[in-house]
Amino acid sequence: MARIQPTPGADGHEPAGATGPSGAGRRKAVRYAVPVAVAGVAAATIGIGSALATAGDPDLPKITAQDLIAKVAASDVQQLSGSVRVTTDLGLPSLPSGVSLGGAMGKAGGGKGKADANPAGKLTELASGSHTLRVAADGPDKQRVSIVERAAEYSLVRNGDQVWAYDSGSNAAYHTTAPKGAADGSRDHKVPEGLADASPQELAKKALAAAEGTTDVAVDGTAKVAGRDAYRLTLTPKQSESTVGSVRIAVDAKNGVPLKFTLTPKGGGKAAVDVAFTKVSFDRPSASTFTFTPPKGAKVTEGSHDGKAGRQGADGFGKGSLPAAPGTDTASAPKVTGTGWATIARLDTGKGTGGMGAGKGLGPKGGAHAKDAEKLLDSLGGKVTGSFGSGRLVSTRLVNVLLTDDGKVYAGAVTKEALLKAADSAR
């Protein structure tokens, strides 16, 4: 398989993720990502086997890696609908008996038994297992994503400035109003980033952004995805610190939309992340798709809006917005070191892990939640020391996280050694 660097293609386009005067145009390439509700974050399951089945790889015209990347960059699909299958196997450590993540971290959306459809509770659902999502979009301000479960469905709907979330299992709804200008590309009042990142488009965008100068890139045959002809683009990181073995992106041969994203760890085994359309249409969805009225008897929680993105309301989220991911506000935004696949994020929580069991950091102060937090920390990883001091190292098949006792968090899809070295260098 011939391997080449992702240099500009014959048609003059540069690969996605490059910088320069034409950067804005290239970002338009992949600027439209299906807003998948959850981080998931969103199963009467559908038959992915039959949906992806093919009588043979399609016979398509030859294309270079440069031209295929340019095709993705030039894609500007604004309307689509379909089903997405998300399968994640990060190898997360098992929690100790009797401990729940919700209990250790505290209930963001309310206490036990409280019906609340706030999307914050869905951000962790795609961290493991398989999930079926139904998605629809008509431009940047009309979007719908549903997590399909066996006996219930959770939907997140945006129609202009109206944003609704609804959990059919609890008959609870959450409503907020997006401010003017929210459709201009700002994510402050759009679908939570953890949810949007569950789409093949968004994942492909991030992978291509990391590819420049750090990756072997090749077109590795063709495939049939959701009944559509596609080229397979393979990215293989060259940086030894990376825990990513390879990324495969199936690109629609006609319109350049990523249809499938598969990430395999360097350690081998089955994919850590596999996200694919099982059904897709690029026709404009019906306007009624984005219309929502709470069912009779539904408990509706209203969000408030003070116009200040990132400000925390009584419920623990930015007021008037869908919840932002931790560390995304200006004050606590993580610092980034490294480049490409070896990028490491550093976050200063201001609270040491050593005090979490006493009610500092994870979970509410004292009580059973504090004990859960202490058990959770003990289960997550082993203790480590270095020039940075001491802390705990949490490892998965793909991501390593260092929690230092003085409140620093280092995370990245990099080796343990690279993470510890970054922490030492930051002292």
Describe the structure.
- With 427 residues, the protein is α+β, with helices and mostly antiparallel strands.
- The protein folds into 2 domains: 23-281, outer membrane lipoprotein receptor (LolB), chain A, CATH 2.50.20; 335-425, no CATH class.
- Helices cover 15% and strands 30% of the residues.
- It contains 8 helices and 18 strands.
- The strands form 2 sheets. The protein has a 12-stranded mixed β-sheet. Strands 13-14-18-17-16-15 form a 6-stranded antiparallel β-sheet.
- β15 and β16 form a beta hairpin.
- The chain is globular, with a radius of gyration of 22 Å.
- It starts with 22 loop residues before the first helix and ends with a helix.
CATH topology label of the largest domain: outer membrane lipoprotein receptor (LolB), chain A
Mass-distribution shape = globular
Radius of gyration: 22 Å
What strand order characterises the main sheet?
7-8-9-10-11-1-2-3-4-5-6-12
Low-confidence stretches: 1-55, 99-113, 182-195, 306-330, 353-366
Biggest sheet character: 12 strands, mixed
CATH architecture call of the largest domain: Clam
Overall tally of structural domains: 2
Indicate the structural class.
Answer: alpha+beta
Q: Care to count the β-strands? A: 18
How much of the residues is beta strand, in percent?
25-35%
Number of helices: 8
Distance between the termini: 43 Å
Query: Kindly state the mean pLDDT as a whole number?
Result: 73
The first-level CATH class name of the largest domain: Mainly Beta
